[in-house]
Amino acid sequence: MAQMVLSGDEAVAQAALDAGLMGGFAYPGTPSTEIMEYLQEHIGKAPAAPRGIRVAQWCANEKTAYESALGVSFVGGRAMVSMKHVGLNVAMDPFVNSALVRINGGLVVVVADDPSMHSSQNEQDSRLLADFARIPCYEPSDQQEAYDMTRQAFEYSERHEVPVLLRLTTRLAHARAQVSTSDPIVPTLKGKCTDPYSWILMPAMARRRWQALLEKQAIFRTDHEVAASLALRSTKLGVITTGLGLRYYLENEEDWAAAHGGERPSHLHIGRYPIGTGKIRQLLDHVDRVLVIEEGYPYIERDLVGMFGAPRPVDGKLSGALPLMGELSADSVRTALGLPQHEAALAARMQLPGRPPQFCQGCPHADSITALKAALEGEAEFFTASDIGCYTLSALPPWNAVDSCVDMGASAGMSRGAGAIGQKKSIGMIGDSTFYHSGMTNLVDAVKHKTPMTLIILDNGATGMTGAQPTISGTSQLPSLLEGLGVEKEHIRVLEAHRRNHEANVQAIREELAYEGVSVIVLVRECLEWLKKVRAS
Amino acid sequence: MTFDIVLCGVGGQGGLSVSVVIARAAMAVGLQVKQSEVHGMSQRGGEVLAHLRIADREIQSPTIPKGHADLILAFEPLEALRYLPWLSAERGTVVSAITPIRNIQQYPDIEAILGELRSLPRVRLVDADTLARQAGNVRSANLVLVGAAADLLPVSPESIEKEIKALFQRKGEAVVQANLKAFEYGRHSIHS
Questions:
Q1: Whole-prediction pTM value?
Q2: CATH class of domain segment(s) A228-342
Q3: Which of A70, A194, B37, B57 is deepest in the core (most CB within 10 A)?
Q4: Contacts of B37 in chain A (CB under 8 A)
């Protein structure tokens, strides 16, 4: 037992190490990045495995990371794969299918959701994807629970031979608090799964596995029902909380009691899914109305209300008592509880300008985008698709340099699709890390169909936006990779992204934009954040 | 006892590291802490924000409710104004640096900003940059501000000094001394 101060991300990583993790795998993504950073920093100091090697590795994308974790599980080691919510979309194929195999070494899938989109393009709720895959989902409400639930998730995963999804949200992942840890166990490697066909998802075997998974649902529901905590108190109001919603509710509970003769609301807290119906029914039988406080989609609330309504009035995100979009807060929950807002009489009298994120001083992207804008000056017809990374900031003033930003790799695919049907000067702009993640395959399509397009790879050697992690493959690998994919050698242009080369870079970009085939321009210069990090270490 | 602090500034000012100093000092005397911040896109070069909650009992919400903060510790004056709705009108104090960071177009008139800050019931405006330079390291302006707020915090100045030493030890004795001095200059600045 030790006392530590950990963020939610760090608590998960520490718990995984203490649970005997053999393999951790990830692709960076806010707010999940720090899980792998912590694993990498500490795995060397954790007890060694008597058999095998303990690893914590960045991967090309979430799908490759997931499949590596599956391999570890197959040969009997505990495995964890961590990602942000949209990363699970990339890993959806191994994720959904891994629910059917006979998990051997415990497999914990950590997904950090980002309600309010602090650093994301949507606010999807991963609890629904665990439901979709028919696997258990654990949702901690604070850092201590993040630690405890991670350890329990490994055990549950092994006991029931399924992956367990651990769902975090931004405020949990990035908040720090005291955590007491329990004794680490020495990692074991059980050896590979010997049950024949239990990992071979050909239709006949997959049907058997699917049936087995469906039969486990009743067990999950019973176990999770036991884990849910119910307190029957006031009959006026029943509160159902999940995850961090618990903390926002407890922040206000005393005030509610003070306003209602000292009596507290009846309360059911749910931290594991799928949930049974017994305790929910008990609560509904006891109270006049129910308030559901959950971070993300109205998931429990929608089930409660169903198609024809609940036996008692249900308040929550669907009813409008809580906002349907954005993260919860102690303030929004306070309003939903019918309590007056805390006095916030203070506010600036003047109009305050926002301070949007921007490129670091001297960022290579700024020089690359300046060159691209100059090359396009006077052009009437062009399409510039951007991608996910720091360079997306060029969508904002004063740059206004790009037309789109949708998902990892979409710049390459969208510029290819548009180019294929005749869009002139169809340009994709993508970082090196994003290119390895999901851009390469689009380029294969472009080469096959000889699509007129230009892909600009901003090669800074790092995933910058998430705090600078090394790109999976080095700069020197890119030209030969591009050639191998079939891009003509004379249309692979490697340039230094620096303002001192501005004229030459503008000229080169113009030349390739004029070419009616696949061209790739690699603009190379290291991310400054990454350099800082390398120098500090 | 609960004590809620909003720490705010502009990316790259090192504001978040002083949050750790205060949090560790509080824990060393047996208090509970919860510290919340946001990383990634919303941080890069823009405004940065951390919430630090200290209490002698379990802390629930990781973020501070509006109108609840005992202290706004602002490393940049415009950012101090931005988070005023979080400050308790009855008991909250603003401790703010006075040097603007003008990395945006249409930065308001700095005198108007400082004027608004001066009109608050409890405010301490600190020339943190100048004091940090005098202490030997302009990068320790954030600790000047912690010094200027030291008497308000629920931890002793000695325990903060101890954590400053621990945090900067790796960077050498000169950096430790400059930061300790910055903290001390901050403490003295409010009496002059």
A1: 0.96
A2: alpha beta
A3: A70
A4: 174-175
